[in-house]
Amino acid sequence: MNVKRYTAPTLAEAMEQVKQELGGDALILSQRTVKKGFFKKEHEVMAAYEKPAESAQSKKGKNFPPLSKGVPPATNAKASAYAKTAKPAGDNPLKDNPPPLVSTRRREASPEPANAAERALEILDQINAKTEPMPAASPILPKEPSGEFQPLHIHVAEPKSEPKEHIIGRPAQAGELAGQGMEQLQNRIDILTSSVNSLVGKMQLGNETRSYSPEIDAMMLSLLENEAHEEFISRIAKEVDEIVTKQREEPREVMEQLLRQYLGTAEPIRLKRFKRTVVLLAGPTGVGKTTTLAKLAAIYSINHHSKVGVITTDTYRIAAVEQLKTYTQILEIPLSIVYTPAEVADALKDHEDKDVVFIDTAGKSPSDQTHEEELTELIKHSECDEVHLVVSATTGFTGLLNILNAYSFLTDFKLIITKLDETPAWGGVLNARFLTDKSLSYTAIGQNVPDDIEVADIRKIVTRLIG
Q1: How far is it, in rounded angstroms, from Cα 251 to Cα 462?
Q2: pTM to 2 decimal places
Q3: What pLDDT does 422 receive?
Q4: How far apart are CA 338 and CA 312, in angstroms?
Q5: pLDDT greater than 50 at residue 166
Q6: Is pLDDT of 235 > 60?
Q7: Is the dihedral of CA 287, 290, 296, 298 positive or negative?
Q8: Which of 48, 214, 355, 446 is spaced 20 to 30 Å from 334 by Cα?
Q9: Other residues' Cβ atoms within 10 Å of the Cβ of residue 376
Q10: CA separation (Å) from 219 to 70, 207, 215, 425, 427?
């Protein structure tokens, strides 16, 4: 079975081309309208045909009479009668009598199928038989599918077809069934293209593509799956490769050492000796600042036996104030509520005997410009000793970048990473360190107060990043 495509300005002209070249034996598989430019359209017809076996008479040079327009050779009485009643060449036979979607010619070698659906199944089997399976690992990427018809000899895996009983059980024409077969074929190509491009994209980091050892590749892939940024992965991989090449060290040991250096040393809150320490927590909404503050207050009150005080400026949310009231009442810690930055200085006078005072701030959108002014004034009036910027590990790279840009007016701060229990990807910790070059202080892994918080464990983070 062979397939040819014909295009013409009109469907009638395209069908006429089919009949002139292939005669009445052609099987019409599909027909559609194809755009040519912005305003021009053409009709496309897909036709299938079989090349007749060459007979001994043809080898001797026997000349067959040419076909008349749209009329097959008269091989029997029925065909002769058709030839006598055919319309003159000047008439348009397609306009009055459109050709059937399935050829009505009977084969003498084998009986005709019982219906059009079985005939279509035969044709689909012949089409599928001509497709060759693709090798398991082909180095050639398939081209993106275009709007044009793809030839049937594309090397793809054989598409799954519907069960024969299901197809026969419903009325369908050959053109529809053939179209379904081609659609399945195209879907296979699209899936294969997407899978290969995804795999290749994972290994193309930064602005260039380099080849590394399998050990380095595996660790790069683990970093990528942890959603570390590609530029940072590329930078680390280059350094690891250079060190391994020059010093013949184990790739994993080098990678672990470099990641520990990039993540730095954890720097928790350092209480001053014989003097009160004021700690302010900042960050956007939804990152868990209030819960984190309650955990820290509980740790210093219960574990370190320090005198702790709490001040909240987050009067925009009633729930935040009530939440802190509940925590401080349980811990028997005094709480002060202030409404303006200037009131913070007076509130601190009420906590002069404390070892450490925690200040909770309102979390606003990074796009809120007034938030910068309020927070700057709050830091100024509180004369805080430490500022900790709280960010969530569930935040994507773009969101993290926006948050850090919004808080870029902070000159000196530490990083608290929360909600590590809510994501399997810990690459956000590495991203935050690369973007800010600020020290990690704490990581939070749940809602339980005060258990689900700890000083940032650099070794644990490295292990999670590279597996």
Answers
A1: 14
A2: 0.57
A3: 92
A4: 6
A5: no
A6: yes
A7: negative
A8: 446
A9: 13
A10: 68, 19, 7, 14, 13
